[in-house]
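Lecture 7, part B: from sequences to assemblies.

Below are the input chains for today's worked example.
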Amino acid sequence: MSSPAPSSISEVLSYEKAQRMAEFFSLLGDPNRWRILSVLALGETRVRDLAERVDMTESAVSHQLRILRSARMVSYHKQGRNVFYTLQDHHIFNLYRDVSEHLDEPEEDPGLAADSIAEANE
Amino acid sequence: MSSPAPSSISEVLSYEKAQRMAEFFSLLGDPNRWRILSVLALGETRVRDLAERVDMTESAVSHQLRILRSARMVSYHKQGRNVFYTLQDHHIFNLYRDVSEHLDEPEEDPGLAADSIAEANE
DNA sequence: ATAACCCATGAATCTCTGTTCAGCTATTGA
DNA sequence: TCAATAGCTGAACAGAGATTCATGGGTTAT
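Predicted structure of the full complex, as C-alpha cells:
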C-alpha cells in the first residue's frame, strides 16, 4: 500500500507524473485551441460560427473541440441541429484571462498566470 | 501608431498572440523536460549526470537543454570540460514546485499553478 | 419525403517535435 | 603527443499531432 507520499522536491519526477504534467501543458500548446477558447470566453458559440471567427474549417474546429471536451475545458449543449459550446467553468475563463493579460505586458516573454492554471485542473 | 491596447477580453485572440501563448505552454509539454527540470530543482548538475538520472542519452539531454536555454529557463556555467546547469531563477523553481505539488493532490486532473507560470516568463 | 444545414468522425496526409547516430571541439590526463 | 572524457550540433529517422477530405447521422424547412 503506502500512500503516494507528498513528494516534496527531493527526487526526480516519476515518468508517470511528468507525463501528466506534460499532457496538461500540451493542451494549451496549440494556437488554434487558444483562439477557440478566446471566442468562447466571449460567450457560448455554435461550431459553425466558431469556425468562421477563428478562420478554420468546421471539421478542424470539431476535432479540436473534441480534445478540449475530453480535457473538460469546454462543455456544450445541443439546440436543434446546432451545438453550442462554452468554457467549462470560471476556472477556465480565469486561465484564459490571466494568461492573455499577462502577455499584454510589454517587454516580457510570453506570460502566464499560474494560479488560474492550478484552478483550471480541478 | 496606436498602442497595443490593453486587450481586455473582447475580441478573438490574434494569431500572433495565440502563437506566443502556445509556444510557452509547448515548452512544458514534454515529460522529459519536466524530468530534467526536476533534477535541476535539486541543484546544479552536469549534463552527464543529468542524462544518467533521467535515463536519457547525453545527446538527447543536450538537445533538450538547448531548448530550455533559449527559453531562458535554465542557465549554465562551464568548469573545465564539465558544464553545470541550473534553473534560471526562483521563478522557474516555483513553477516546478507548484505544478508538481498540485499534481500530488489526489482525485484531480493534472494540476498546475498559474502565478508561478506568470513569473516564469518574466 | 426530399433537400439543406449542422456537426461529428475515420482515414489519409502533412507537419512538427524528439531521439538516435555520427562527427566535431575542447579539455584533461597519461 | 595521444587517448579519453564531456558536451554540442546537424542530419536522418520515427512518432505524435493537426488539418483535410469524404462520409454519415440527425434536425429543420419546403
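Note for the exam: Residues 107-111 of chain B have pLDDT under 50 and may be disordered. Keep this in mind when comparing with the next example.
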